[in-house]
Amino acid sequence: MADHRPNTLLLAMTDRLPISAFIIAKNEADRIPKAILSVRDWVDEVIVIDSGSDDDTVAVADRLGAKTYFHEWHGYGPQKIYGETLCRNKWLFNLDADEEATPETIAEIKALFANGEPAHKAFSMKTNTVFRFEDKPRRFAVSMTHGRLYNKDFAGFKDSTVHDSVVLRDGGELKLLKNGLNHYIFRSHHHAIEKVNLYSSMQAEDLYRKGRNPSLLRIVFTPIWAFIKAYFLRGYIFYGLDGVIRSYIYAFSRLIRAAKAREKFQEEAYLLREKARRKDS
Q1: Is 241 helix (H, G, I), strand (E, B) or coil?
Q2: Using alpha carbons only, what angle is made at residue 210 by residues 209 and 211, rounded to the nearest 5 degrees?
Q3: pLDDT, tens only, 69-91
Q4: CA–CA dist 154, 135 (Å, integer)
Q5: pLDDT in tens, 162-205
């Protein structure tokens, strides 16, 4: 007969689960408190990996009880893989500095551990977008799905500078939790453009390394498709005029990514021509 008695170890931990939460951050002093406060009372430890903040991110994280470490930035995947090495527990919960675990998500995770470790080894959840001037995700909020809770003996982040995704080492699928995270995505349109500029440069470098030079058709049609995808498929249509603006910003991000990648191939071709010209002269 199955033993349905509660796990005495977890009872002794007074609702603090054997999970390490870790957060990568840079210049997030204004947003990281939500992330830390949403996990610190029910996980075993909270770790913040800072990549060189020049604001009070480290001081704020320390004050809220997180363990802080510096690690030079080498991309999203490498940064999170380093975070994994710092965690003393097998079960890890990753969230970004602009995310927040909701009470419903916390209750769902606690239920997973109610009778010991979950049978499944990695879970994904939706990150529901909260835009500026909003207090919480609206109905039909724009969301994405990311791996967030996993056993590091069986899963971990990919070593990709651009794509920070969790994969099971046996190639299996992550199980989607019912509840998700609040994602406080942009401080302003100015901040959105700054992030687009930074991230598109990283994406362009990744395309260049892979030898993927954008074609004429891709340059022409990528922003058009990106707007349609954002407005209709991602749900920006429910945001009125703000949804139109954000769809255009998303379309621009896709255009500038392709343009930057093309520029890198143009630069390579130019340098080769110059080298040949100097050799012939």
Answers
A1: helix
A2: 90
A3: 999 999 999 999 999 999 999 99
A4: 36
A5: 988 999 999 999 999 999 999 999 999 999 999 999 999 999 99
**How far is it, in rounded angstroms, from Cα 91 to Cα 94?**
10
**CA-to-CA dists, residue 272 to 74, 113, 264, angstroms:** 28, 59, 12
Q: Provide the token pair at 244.
A: 């139109």
Q: Domain 8-184 belongs to what architecture? A: Alpha-Beta Complex (3.90)
Q: Which two tokens stand for residue 276?
A: 């040949």
154 closest CA partner among 243, 90, 73: 90
DSSP conformational letter for 239:
G
Strands 122-130 and 143-151 come out as antiparallel
- Both tokens of 104, joined, read 């419903």
Ramachandran region, residue 15 (left: φ > 0; alpha: ψ -120 to 50; beta: rest): left
Q: Where are the domains of the chain?
A: 8-184, 189-280
Task: List alpha helices for 91-144, DSSP H.
Answer: 103-112
